[in-house]
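Dear colleagues,

As part of the handover before I leave the project, I'm documenting each prediction I ran so the next person doesn't have to rerun anything. This entry is a single chain, and its sequence is reproduced below.
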Amino acid sequence: MSGKINFDVDHVIASLIAQDQPFALYRLPNETEPCLIMQDDMNLVECQSYDELGGCSGFLMAPFALSKDAPMVVLKADKYICGFSAITDFFQELSLSPAFSAYSSDTSAKNCAEEVIFEGSNESLWQEQQQCYQADFATFHEALNEHRFDKLVLATRRAFIYQPFKAFASFMKACKLYPKMMVSLVHSAKTGTWLGATPEILLKGQGKSYQTMSLAGTMLSSDEACQNPNDLSGWSDKDRLEQEYVTTYIEDVIKPYALDIKEQGPYIAMAGPVCHLRTDFEFTIKEDAVIGSLIGKLHPTPAVCGLPKEEAYQFIVESESINRRYYSGMLGPINLEGQSQIFVNLRCMEVKFPKPSENNEKVLALAYAGGGNLRQSQCHLELQEACNKMRAICSAIADPTKGE
């Protein structure tokens, strides 16, 4: 992606968000150019079941757990534009439109990122968040030790304030940092605003040929054990067992839907500041298979949920302190020009822009992360892993003082 912009795209993006204009700006893994999907009206397609997805076309945004406050929606591709130049030309034309209401923002304001202060210092807030995580970990670990589950994924989030928040510049920076990830900036009134860079494919396909993966186990990319993609000897038994659980689950799910299943892995895959164990699957979809049904069976995978899946899902919804919303849900183009590329929404943050009437320049961002817990898991290591994962999206936030 290259080219100079002679107008402020971030002002255009901020105005679209202020007006609740549904759009999805995304760059697929290993692609050089982004794509933009924009819906003309506000009436998103809202799906009550996964089977309905087979008849939808556009950009899918689905939560971890369906609810009234976090529905599964598809943004219709009334406008579908690919290529950096074409997208910026479109935004520039949009900014000149008489009907376009510019969103005022003081771009000269000092950029900063800090933990949100509600009532107390930054340090006290982070201590409170850690205590919440530790309480959840104890609840989850008790259930694991009782052998009710083989694996449970515990999520957490951390709050930040940015002033200003450059959404488009951050999207572009994420594209540069993470060429092998799905990078996205999505907004609608129903979902809110989400920025993310995820390494995990849920389901990718065209015609009868499809792909999926199992992704589990985490280490820092700088660790010596991550340097050789085919040498797993430096990985812990916990990480390898976690990956084995997810791989076995994926195999069992796709068998009723697939022919000619080919499996590759596990191997080490880089994902920004961390690396994971990954196994790839390629298969031919059966003639009578329903894609929406397969998506529903895959989601949520044990990589973001646990095993046994249905019981783990219910336990997480009932026991986890935070509301995940669209973190660990699904997103991506679906049935668009004959292709679907659906990803698990990891390494993401929900961005809460102030309303224009609030006369407030500060933007609240909630960064999400999680980790797989087995019986041998340790709380402080799991929390550190979650913080390492958050670094992926936090590192992508553009600093206007550096011209990003």
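The longest helix spans residues 122-145. The first strand starts at residue 23 and ends at 27.

All the best with the project,
I.
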